[in-house]
């Protein structure tokens, strides 16, 4: 099965998750700005970040293209709040009801890649989580491996 992985993120975490997936399932990896011919692929894996409660705009643009063709679709989400994973997965099911699986990998926050207000917001968010006794966001390799197994048909 030939797989296209499209990682639509802003600060690199969604792409990093895409790299980890590619190591496990193979395929071609690119960001949401790349040009591709969907006819070359059997399945599409799309990743999006969550920024201030919303999915990435490039994700929506690419999803629109993919909805027009008959391809197996898998979606992963990278967000900073593991405790809201069900909320984001449910929201994505409404956006992409034909997706075969939707995974939530949690995510990393790197304020050094952000600019001005976004940088301040990320630093404040991390500080707030620490004060509240919550873990700093990170990619969950276990979730990525489980998602890859579903794509490869090893689990339902």
- How many strands in all? 6
Structural domain count: 1
Shape: globular
Count of alpha and pi helical runs: 5
CATH topology description: Rossmann fold
CATH homologous superfamily designation: Flavodoxin domain
- What is the helix fraction of residues, given as a range? 25-40%
Ends distance? 17 Å
Q: Order of SSEs, N→C?
A: EHEEEHEHEHH
Q: Structural class of the helices, strands and pairings?
A: alpha/beta
Rg: 15 Å
Strand portion, in percent?
Answer: 15-25%
Biggest β-sheet, characterized?
A: 6 strands, mixed
Can you put this structure into words, describing what you see?
This protein is of the alpha/beta class and 156 residues long. It has a single domain (3-108, 139-151), classed as Rossmann fold (3-Layer(aba) Sandwich). Helix content is 40%, strand content 21%. It contains five helices and six strands, in the order E-H-E-E-E-H-E-H-E-H-H. It has helices at 13-25, 57-67, 85-95, 116-131, 141-151; strands at 3-8, 28-31, 43-51, 54-55, 72-78, 101-104. Strands 1, 2, 3, 4, 5 and 6 form a six-stranded mixed sheet that branches. Helix 1 (13-25) crosses helix 5 (141-151). The longest helix has 16 residues, at 116-131. The model has no long low-confidence stretch (mean pLDDT 91).
């Amino acid at each position: 099965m030939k797989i296209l992985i499209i990682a639509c993120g802003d600060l690199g975490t969604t792409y990093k998750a895409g790299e980890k997936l590619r190591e496990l399932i193979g395929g071609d990896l690119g960001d949401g700005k790349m040009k591709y011919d969907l006819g070359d692929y059997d399945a599409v894996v799309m990743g999006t970040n969550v920024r201030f409660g919303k999915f990435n705009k490039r994700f929506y643009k690419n999803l629109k293209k993919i909805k027009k063709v008959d391809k197996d679709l898998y979606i992963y989400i990278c967000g900073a709040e593991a405790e809201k994973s069900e909320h984001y997965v449910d929201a994505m099911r409404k956006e992409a009801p034909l997706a075969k699986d939707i995974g939530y990998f949690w995510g990393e926050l790197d304020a050094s890649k952000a600019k001005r207000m976004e940088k301040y917001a990320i630093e404040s968010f991390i500080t707030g989580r620490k004060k509240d006794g919550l873990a700093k966001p990170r990619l969950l390799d276990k979730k990525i491996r489980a998602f890859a197994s579903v794509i490869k048909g090893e689990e339902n």
